[in-house]
Amino acid sequence: MSEHTWFILAIIIYMGAMLAIGYWSYRQTDEYDDYMLAGRNLNPFVAALSAGASDMSGWLLMGLPGALFVSGMSQLWIAIGLLIGCWANWFWVAPRLRSYSEVADNSITIPSFVENRVDDTSRVLRIVSSIVILVFFTFYVSSGMVAGGKYFEATFDAGYLDGMLIIAAVTVAYTFIGGFLAVSYTDAVQGSIMFAALILVPVIALFSMDNPADIWTWSTAHPYGPYGAEGNPDYFSMVKGVSILAIISNLAWGLGYFGQPHIIVRFMAIRGPRECRSGRRVGIFWMLLCIVGATFVAIIGTAFFGQDPSIAITDRDSYETIFLDMARILFHPLFAGLVLTAVLAAIMSTISSQLLVTSSALVEDLYKIVVKKKPSSQVLINLSRTAVVAVAVFAAVLAANPNDSILDLVGFAWAGFGSAFGPLVIASLYWRRLNAPGAIAGMVTGAVVSFVWGQVDALSSTLYEIVPGFIASALMIWIVSSVTAKPNKTTTDEFDEAVRLVEVSKQKPEMAMTTVHKKMKRGEVN
């Protein structure tokens, strides 16, 4: 069989497995809350891999190796910032958000949580947060579809548009039928595939070389990729030629974690606050080794491709197909096809998570506001499925003619969410004085500052837009909340209840969190 036939067979096996998980999840999903949040009973291992896979996306296997290959280790500041941000998110946000989202009228989306948290009866906060989700997730989903198109170009020598549409169709299919449970379990499988592939490809590539030690010198003194005879002398330097603002910008990617709806929604679905410790350990270990693997794909790739003129990287602009090309060259076509599914895994896990969150913004946070009669659970599920398809179609239109790299698209959306939601989520969980006017002002300010800053090349090229966006949002939350009326007693009592629920749940690991909450209300647990 030809190489392409083997690749197609591997992809069919992978796609079939994803659809099978989607069907299994469909059989487990009876209620709307199950479709949107898996009944708040998510295993911490699944939650950790699901959060990681939906977070990293095609950026980890395509964007990061490409950036490191072209620019050298100065790009690692992004990975360091993300690793720190991921740890902080699991440590500070996860336990309290799991507790507080249940206390705050059993909120199942981030917009509904922030509205219930500050008791915003005007519905403005919920509407604004839903609009922010719709705007920035459209770009985020588009970045995944762009990665999908590039994947098919590099792997099958097929058309970009054909590949983009195939990946979009299968991802929409299992998200459509299985909801949050399907997304979470497919993400866990996809995260495992990504992990194995990122370890396997650089190791095999290293052993396939005649002189493996060349990886430490080739990039600094030999031609490779975009560099001529002198190579890139500063390849291994993380600071040379890099300004302080550039380092701050790259580290600031870590700030974005606090405000990513598709990531922190996993915290709302996990079994309880006590499980967050296990989730944090699994998630950080997975992420650290994946980043190490992606880094060595780039380092080894300089010598791997530089020494052999008969092989080349397909993407000659941003070099984001380096991982795909190495796998294709190193392995038997069937095995290479299975390894290359890691990229599909990364792309599809992120798209599915984002589609589900976006559909929830349309249905849970916008549609339910305007309808007078509460729809049935089945009607809400069907509306959510329709929204998944609608958002996917719109994102596909944007991705049909990509003008930016995957990293640029992801960076824009990441900054938007981090600025709009990050400071608000932290304040919601840790500042008792937060009120509705402060929350609204902070969210709007963060989104606007990030969006405008990102559109001005002179500004965005100097400092990543999440930095001014995050700072402006945090300041506005503090100033406006401080000069306007204090939150009412019901709101502050709810805050105290959520904090207490975290501690009591940790002391009662044998009880489900919902049970602990009910016993607290009845005064049976201190």
Describe the structure.
The chain has 526 residues and is mainly alpha-helical. The chain has one domain: Sodium/glucose cotransporter, CATH 1.20.1730. It contains 20 helices and no strands. Helix 6 packs parallel to helix 16 (436-455) and helix 15 runs parallel beside helix 18. The chain is globular. The mean pLDDT is 84. It is found in: Cell membrane. It holds the Pfam family SSF.
In short:
This protein has 20 helices and no strands. With 526 residues, the protein is mainly alpha-helical.
Descriptive key words:
526 residues; mainly alpha; Sodium/glucose cotransporter; 20 helices; 75% helix; sodium transport; Na/Glc_symporter_sf
Give, in order, the helices and strands.
HHHHHHHHHHHHHHHHHHHH
CATH superfamily: Sodium/glucose cotransporter
- CATH architect. name: Up-down Bundle
CATH topology: Sodium/glucose cotransporter
- How is the main sheet built? none
| Strand composition percent | under 5%
* Low-pLDDT runs: none
- Structural class by helix and strand composition: mainly alpha
Number of domains: 1
Q: What is the distance, rounded to the nearest whole angstrom, between the alpha carbons of the first and last residues?
A: 68 Å
CATH class: Mainly Alpha
Gross geometry: globular
The residue-averaged pLDDT reads: 84
Q: Which bin fits the share of residues in helices? A: over 70%
Secondary structure topology:
Elements: H1 3-28, H2 32-37, H3 44-71, H4 76-103, H5 110-118, H6 124-156, H7 160-208, H8 218-221, H9 244-251, H10 261-269, H11 275-306, H12 322-330, H13 333-370, H14 377-399, H15 406-430, H16 436-455, H17 457-460, H18 466-483, H19 489-507, H20 513-521
Helix pairs in contact: 1-7, 1-13, 3-6, 3-7, 3-10, 3-11, 3-13, 4-9, 4-10, 4-11, 4-19, 5-6, 6-7, 6-13, 6-14, 6-15, 6-16, 7-11, 7-12, 7-13, 7-14, 10-13, 12-13, 13-14, 15-16, 15-18, 16-18
GO cellular component, one term: plasma membrane
Pfam families: SSF
Catalytic activity: L-proline(in) + Na(+)(in) = L-proline(out) + Na(+)(out)
